[in-house]
Amino acid sequence: MGELAASQKEHLEKTLRELAEGARARLPEIAKGNRDGALLAMARLLEEAWPEVLKANQEDLKEAEEAGLSRAKLDRLALKDKDLRSLTEGLRQIAALPDPLGRIEGLSKRPNGLRVGRMRIPLGLIGFIYEARPGATVEAVSVALKAGNAMLLRGGKEAFRSNQALVSLWHRALREAGLPVEAVSLVPTTEREAILAMCRLELLDLLIPRGGEELIRLVQREARVPVLAHAKGVNHLYVDERADLDMALRLAINGKTQRPAVCNALEAVLVHERVAEVFLPMLEKAMRERGVELRACPKALPLLKEAVPAQEEEWDREYLDLILRVKVVSGLEEALEHIARYGSRHTEAICTEDPKAAWRFLEEVDASLVLWNASTRFNDGFQLGLGAEIGISTSKLHAYGPMGPMELTTTKWVALGEGQERE
Amino acid sequence: MGELAASQKEHLEKTLRELAEGARARLPEIAKGNRDGALLAMARLLEEAWPEVLKANQEDLKEAEEAGLSRAKLDRLALKDKDLRSLTEGLRQIAALPDPLGRIEGLSKRPNGLRVGRMRIPLGLIGFIYEARPGATVEAVSVALKAGNAMLLRGGKEAFRSNQALVSLWHRALREAGLPVEAVSLVPTTEREAILAMCRLELLDLLIPRGGEELIRLVQREARVPVLAHAKGVNHLYVDERADLDMALRLAINGKTQRPAVCNALEAVLVHERVAEVFLPMLEKAMRERGVELRACPKALPLLKEAVPAQEEEWDREYLDLILRVKVVSGLEEALEHIARYGSRHTEAICTEDPKAAWRFLEEVDASLVLWNASTRFNDGFQLGLGAEIGISTSKLHAYGPMGPMELTTTKWVALGEGQERE
Q1: Which CATH number is B245's domain given?
Q2: Which residues of chain B lie closer than 8 angstroms to A379, CB-CB?
Q3: Which residues pair with A210 in a beta bridge?
Q4: How many structural domains are present in chain A?
Q5: Residues B216 and B281 in one domain
Q6: Cβ separation of B374 and A417 shorter than 8 Å?
Q7: Three-state SS annotation for B349-360
Q8: Which of B378, B382, B406, B411 to mutate to test the interface with A (most CBs of A within 10 A)?
Q9: Of A387, B184, B287, B338, which sits 20 to 30 A from A333 (CA to CA)?
Q10: Looking at the record's lineage, which domain of life comes first (chains A, B) (predicted)?
Q11: What is the interface size between A and B, counted as CB pairs within 8 Å?
């Protein structure tokens, strides 16, 4: 960072300000316009112009390969035909969702006859900072636009041409639906400085960073505007003394192995000491068959054949890999304490047949989703019924959990009077 | 600032961290405990121990007087017997409000049988930074505690002894109700450095600054945690061509003069050019009788006898005084543009008998409260039916408008399963 000369920095800040002002001026039109029409047009245009998009993506890939990007990163950068299907399906699903805007909630009459209520409105202009995957250029915009917001995008440097191609399709879709193209803009530079400039752009109503821990921390540290971000998912399953152990095993397997590299995957199992002797060998066998390495606390180690000791400093780690921590606890109390200390407020689960233990867990654990007898993998906008999501917030303000179209709205108060004055 | 030595700064940070950790550890008990009991005990203790509080307040006043504090500031610092009545009434009213916590909203069954919903929970630990008025030590805590939150207070330097006395009463009230005293803490130093330390205290779920523009801006610039703050209230009344001009006059008088020094007072009137010739002389006469100075745009000036020209740079100013800006506009369109440019998203009103103009105004104006035929003075938690408030947010995230107990809660997702795994 700090690579730009002062004059270039000024130019960048001016460009962002102009894009933001242009978008803000059109917000009422966007809220009133045919937003679902734009989503459907985008689905059709993606199908028609997919070769153009792929061509831009190929150029990005070529350059990224030459720059020596890792295999995993190249894989995330590459658009495939199955992406076309999932993107167009997503757009059509979101277009079919009910409109989150326009309702007046709780309209009620005050003693002086003034009618007051809350009108559901867009947040306004949302900044979105993301990393390599170009599909997000379609998905994130579709959720924001459904809720009547404008969006200023700053995608990963490697995906710049792909993102340009997709944003130019968005502009065609917006025009077809009679909406202003200012609703979607791509920051027209790949300089990293643009991230800092967005953090300081006070014309944004909200800034959403999506990517690695380093990016999220940078944005949280530098932002002068409200931020919704997700921290890592250090997610636990507590196997209670009254758990159905077969169910607990299935939940552990599903949580850890169904898709290990995502934020709602399971990272640690806490086992009640009264069932540890039976459960831990079951868990070890199942995990070994699936190539999962176990790292265990001192009490669990003697009950496991191949586990290695877990280091103190790794109890709050998110592996995103086939590694699972195991800890024996004296009961619900110790499980709650452990989660409060090492959890990341993302997703926490209990497996038990005891409703009293379950409700205490559900009520006391502070996490965006708390589950009873279900897999941590359900912390997802589609799974919880939001229809779509732009990320999972682990900050409690505004939206705690997956953020769908409704989470990208707010309410303002409206008051309908007949000349009321304050006494 | 920067007056503290590094070792003192470290000590301050450590103290804050310990207070915050102490509070966080007791959050489940606070949420489950007899919060209304603590509010009622506080009301009774205030009545019993009022002389103690006044004694501490006298000491604060004496020191402040010696330090040469302005008359207005001394007045805000001084506790009077009418404060006792309003504080105890407020506590009893808030205790009587329904409990915002514990409900599970929208519990519904997903296709796989998983039952999901949102459980209403406290935000957690709230930092509150405020200036001289010691009554806020009672009011703000009562709103936060009603919603199950713990609070870390940093009051004004001048009110330190008063705040200490009030917090020690809170501790007695909490103990009487069986709640942990960690629910309410006062930062035990008057150093300004404590503000910065709170801005960086990542154990806070929310930081609320309440005071002058300078304090708010400092906190917004420095905070590493979510902030809910209110900007100034640059509030307009648009008098439409189809306004009932007598009503418009009453609303202008009420907005400007009923309590000029508060954030929901009126600062500017926009008048449709077709009614300006009739309305402006009415307005001038009424305002002159009430000692209000008019500052006018070039089109309004010839229609007014004593108004002075409004300077370009004052159109976004909050006078908090008996001064009113007047501007003639060509119609609704220009009024909307003017408000979008100079308004502060606080409170905006239209006076008209034309529902079409009214609804366009209600829908398009971006402000925490938009009124039709009613005074801007209604932007207030009690007036809108929240029962209490801790301030008025002009940021759109989480709470846009007055913040009552419900606005100091959030929801987490809960999922009740029977062993569901993700496919």
Answers
A1: 3.40.309.10
A2: 413
A3: A130
A4: 2
A5: no
A6: yes
A7: EEECCCHHHHHH
A8: B378
A9: B184
A10: Bacteria
A11: 204
Q: Indicate whether A65 and A205 sit together in one domain.
A: yes
Contacts of A124 in chain B (CB under 8 A): 366, 396
Among A405, A390, A406, A409, which Cα is nearest to A137's? A390
Chain B residues within an 8 Å CB radius of A378: 114, 116, 415, 420, 422
What is the tens place of the pLDDT at every residue in B236-293? 999 999 999 999 999 999 999 999 989 999 999 999 999 999 999 999 999 999 999 9
Give exposure, A31-63, as e/b (b: 16+ Cβ within 10 Å).
Answer: bebebbbbbbbbbebbeebbeebbebbeebbee
- Across the interface, do A414 and B114 touch by the CB < 8 Å criterion? no
Instruction: Give the Cα separation of B400 and B133 in Å (integer).
Output: 24
Residue B393 lies in a domain: no
The whole-angstrom separation of Cα B43 and Cα B39 is 6
List the CATH number of the domain containing B40.
3.40.605.10
Q: Are residues A339 and A355 in the same domain?
A: yes
Tokens of B202: 């990542």
Strand pairing class (B115-122; B104-109): antiparallel
Which of B224, B247, B414 has its CB closest to that of A221?
A: B224
The residue of chain B nearest to residue A397, with distances taken between CA atoms, is: B398
Domain residues for the domain of B184 are 6-228+403-414
My answer on whether A209 and A321 are in the same domain is no
Q: For residues A157 and A216, state if they share a domain.
A: yes
Integer Cα distance of B334 and B270 in angstroms: 9
Chain B: give the shortest CA distance to residue A291, in Å. 20
User: CA–CA separation, B294 vs B268, rounded Å?
Assistant: 9
> Do B245 and B310 fall within a single domain?
yes
Domain assignment of residue A387, yes or no? no
**In angstroms, rounded to a whole number, what is the distance separating the alpha carbons of residues B128 and B420?**
42
Interface test with A, best of B120, B244, B366 (most A CBs within 10 A): B366
Residues A396-409 as b or e (16 or more Cβ within 10 Å = b): bbbbbbbbbbbbbb
Whether residue B421 lies inside any domain: the answer is no
Are residue B130 and residue B180 in the same domain, yes or no? Answer: yes
- What ipTM was reported for this prediction? 0.93
| Token digits of residue A168 | 């130019």
Nearest-CA distance from A378 to chain B in Å?
7
Whether residues A415 and B254 touch (CB distance < 8 A) is answered with no
| Separation CA A112–CA A109 (nearest Å) | 8
| CB contact (8 A) between residue A368 and residue B124 | no
Q: How many CA atoms lie within 13 A of B393 on its CB side?
A: 26
The partner residues of B118 in beta bridges, in order of sequence, read B105, B413
Q: What is the DSSP string of B221-238?
A: HH-SS-B-------EEEE
pLDDT digits (tens, 9 = 90+) for A162-187: 999 999 999 999 999 999 999 999 99
| Nearest of A18, A30, A24, A351 to residue A180 by alpha carbon | A30
- Check whether residue B76 and residue B136 sit in a common domain: yes
- Report CB contact under 8 Å: A414, B369: yes
Q: Is residue A110 part of a domain?
A: yes
